Amino acid sequence: xxxxxxxxxxLSVPEGENLVLNCSFTDxxxxxxxxxxxxxxxxxxxxxxxxxxxxxxxxxxxxxxLDKSSGRSTLYIAASQPGDSxxxxxxxxxxxxxxxxAGTKLIIKP
Amino acid sequence: xxxxxxxxxxxxxxxxxxxxxxxxQTMGHDKMYWYQQDPGMExxxxxxxxxxxxxxxxxxxxxxxxxxxxxxxxxxxxxxxRPSHTSQYLCASSGWDGLNYGYTFGSGTRLTxx
Lengths: 110, 114
Fold this sequence. Notes:
The structure holds two protein chains of two kinds. By secondary structure, chain A is mainly β. Chain A is 0% helix and 60% strand. Chain A has no helices and eleven strands. The radius of gyration of chain A is 13 Å and the shape is globular. Chain A starts with a strand and ends with a strand. Chain B is 0% helix and 53% strand. Chain B is built from no helices and eleven strands. The chains are: A mainly beta, B mainly beta.
């Protein structure tokens, strides 16, 4: 059974720092992995999607990597800003279902 | 612009009332989903649909029901609301955009049953 783990559960860093969020999964047979952002009380915004055949995807200050063999993905955020404060969720697609991590709550201090 | 819409955004309702949460998407996606999320907790799949007239229960047991009569519409109904139903409900759809097979989420409905 696929399980997704995100570490750390919470992270607080000063503005301007580069940071890495981690996501691990137990079954490497995935179709893709998707990173989402959730602001308090809101829905989810898709940030990056990596197909199982890809190694990384980039969007602006965000870079997501995927190592299927080791069951790991990282989300790199460069030059963090207070507006990046949110909960970041990763989800792997197995069959037609998304398996979710519990998220990393990120706080960027001005 | 292609998107997914949920209404209402917030709902406070008394115990025993029947409610329907609306979800519509304009992307033509076949697959749609309902998730339940308590504050600070994981998303839990409660219902999904792979197309018109197709509905299935998800991993989390729920007293709600869904219908899929039209591709773009996937409403969720609670016949008799209870305080234990207080939660955030997120609707999503998935499909192929020519490059990727991804998921798109609505803004959610925050339900409070008093």
